[in-house]
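Protein folds are increasingly written down as C-alpha cells. With that in mind, we are printing a sequence and the C-alpha cells encoding its fold.
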Amino acid sequence: MSDFDDLLQSDRTLLLVDDDKVFLTRLERAMVKRGFDVRIADTVADGIAAVNAIPPAFAVVDLRLEDGNGLQVLSVLHEKRPDARAVVLTGYGNIATAVTAVKLGAVDYLAKPADADDVINALLATGEKHPEPPENPMSADRVRWEHIQRVYELCDRNVSETARRLNMHRRTLQRILAKRAPR
C-alpha cells in the first residue's frame, strides 16, 4: 500500500469552503455518504480558522468567496499540511488562477457546477491515473460567457471598459450581457 492509500484509510477529514449555501450543503451530504468526516465553511476567514484548528487531509475550495479569494485558504492548508489534497472549484476559470492553484498544492481545478463524483475523482486521482473527464463539461459558449462575465465584474460592471479590454465593440458586448447564460 502507498503512503496515499494509508492516508486515505486513516484520515478522511474533508474541508468544504464555498459561499453558495445550497451547493455547500448538497456537497457536504454527498461526501458524508462517501465516508468523509466533513467540516464546512462559507468564508475565507472561516476556512482559514478551520485549517488552523485541525488541518484536513482533503479540501474542496471555491475560488471566489464573498470575503476574498479561496486560494488564501489553500495557501494556509499547504503550510499546515503539505500532504493535503485539495481541489479548487470555480465558475470563473482562467489559466492564471489554475496555475496559481496548482502551485499552492491543488491537485485539480474544476468548473462549477461539479458533482460529488467529479470531486471525488479529482481528490483521489494519483500519479498516472487521471480523473475521468466530467460527464457534462461546460460548452465553449458557456466558457466564453463566463469569461466575459468575469471581466465585466472585474471592470466594476463598466461596459465600455470591459469592451475595450476584450477588444470587442461595446454594442456587441451589451447584446451578449443582455442574453441568458448558454448551457
User: Anything to note?
Assistant: Residues 1-7 have pLDDT under 50 and may be disordered. The chain is about 50% helix and 15% strand.
